[in-house]
Amino acid sequence: MGNINPINNSGKELENELEQRLIQNGIPYTRSEEGPKADIDFIIHTKPKMYVECHNQNTKGSVDEKIPHKVFKYRSKHGMDTMYIVKGTYPLNSRIENHIELLESAFGMKVEIESLDSITNKILSNPIQNNKFF
């Protein structure tokens, strides 16, 4: 069909990099499938489970405007206490940060914005769940 949007491509690259780090460290996870059944990008099977969404915005644009809706959607679906957003190098717009704070307050949850390196360190600091499926 046409060219792949380079912004979508960079998002997939971030997801793939996180997945490689999980594999290299033997961390069990579930990765969302693409398309109409898409869900949060990763559920990391540590204690506690970690719910991770990747947004690789490295230039000015509107990609970050989707983050609050994803927080709402995935909190409604999974009921997590903490959601992690792994982002690129471009800082979030202050309006988006304010929107996330409003959702945190409404849901009684925490949304942590992380770099790829910082989320990797957080994942590695949690014990792996003992489960016969992993």
What radius of gyration results from the CA coordinates? 15 Å
What amount of the residues lies in strands?
Answer: 15-25%
N-to-C order of helices and strands:
HEEEHEHEH
Number of helices, where a helix is a run of at least 4 consecutive DSSP H or I residues? 4
State the name of the first-level CATH class: Alpha Beta
- The structural class is alpha/beta
- Report the helical percentage: 40-55%
Largest sheet: 5 strands, mixed
Summarize the structure.
By secondary structure, the protein is α/β, with parallel strands linked by helices. It has helices at residues 6-24, 67-78, 94-107, 116-124; strands at 29-31, 42-44, 50-55, 82-87, 110-114. The chain has one domain (6-124): 3-Layer(aba) Sandwich (Restriction Endonuclease).
Describe it:
The protein has 134 residues and is α/β, with parallel strands linked by helices. The chain has a single domain, classed as Restriction Endonuclease. It contains 4 helices and 5 strands; from the N terminus they run H-E-E-E-H-E-H-E-H. The protein has a 5-stranded mixed sheet, with helices on both faces.
